[in-house]
Amino acid sequence: MTKMASTLHFVLVHGVGGGSWCWYKIRCLMENSGYKVSCIDLKSGGIDSSDPNKVLTFEDYNQPLIDFLSTIPDHDKIILVGHSAGGLSLTHAILKFGKKIHLAIFIAATMLRLGFWTEQDVKDVFLDGSRQPYTPNMGNAFCLQGVPDLSEFGDVEDVTFGNGPNEPPTSIVIKKEFQRKLAYHMSPLEDSTLASMLLKPGPIRALQGAQFKETGNDNDIDKVTRVYIKTLNDRIVKPEQQDAMIKKWAPADVYVLESDHSPMFSTPFLLFGMLIKAVASTQIKLDLLDQRPLSEH
């Protein structure tokens, strides 16, 4: 292993309702290749026992990632990898630990520079423009901002109103009978079965509150190199929605996978290869910048 590879530390972040278990194939591939890798359970995700209906702010939801990153030595080169809604966790972490992060990789992920600040942010990421914000007394017919528009597939989501029927929803999960069709339709049956046993309701109220502010210090969000991995057969974050995010906040590179929403299951070897390629490509570009004459810096 090269000296650079020995200092790399991959930190993998799951999407809403998932957990560190989502990454078991990628973690095995990385560790077998000698890389350091950590998989995080966000609050109420994975083995974290918190009630998602009581996780009401994004800061609370993402605190496990923030706490973990604060313990990583400065000499480690952190490679943040986020899937789906885990992209919001990456952006939040970049704003807090920009100087520590070598690269951020978004996989079919929410990539918004400062989160959900405008209606256009929501439309660019998730909506077809037909949904409206939640208002009291809408019951189960509500249209929720910040959630993928899956209405073309019918009534596919179980929603919990933990604060009462006249308050916005607090958690959401895709119904078991639709999970394979929507999230894992190209994945091995054993993986979609595993996911159906482990997926939990996600704290949607917290995710809706993902609004970030720049701090104005050296952790400038645009100083961290970003890479986006598109999933061309995605039925949750559709390719055109991924394109909208890429256009709005352009990353350094875009890679493409012929996969469903969950390439860590459907195309793990290709995804692993892309992650390593993204790191190598970023390092080459940084080395070239370092070799420029001082007058060009």
UniProtKB/TrEMBL annotation:
Taxonomy, superkingdom: Eukaryota
Q: Which residues form the signal peptide?
A: 1-18
Family matches, as Pfam families = Abhydrolase_6 (PF12697)
> What are the protein's GO molecular function terms?
methyl indole-3-acetate esterase activity; methyl jasmonate esterase activity; methyl salicylate esterase activity
Keyword terms of this UniProt record: Hydrolase, Signal
**What are its GO biological-process terms?**
jasmonic acid metabolic process; salicylic acid metabolic process
Under the heading InterPro entries, the entry gives: AB_hydrolase_1, AB_hydrolase_fold, MES/HNL
Q: Where is the AB hydrolase-1 domain?
A: 10-268
Q: Which PANTHER family match?
A: METHYLESTERASE 17-LIKE, METHYLESTERASE FAMILY MEMBER
Q: What is this protein called?
A: AB hydrolase-1 domain-containing protein
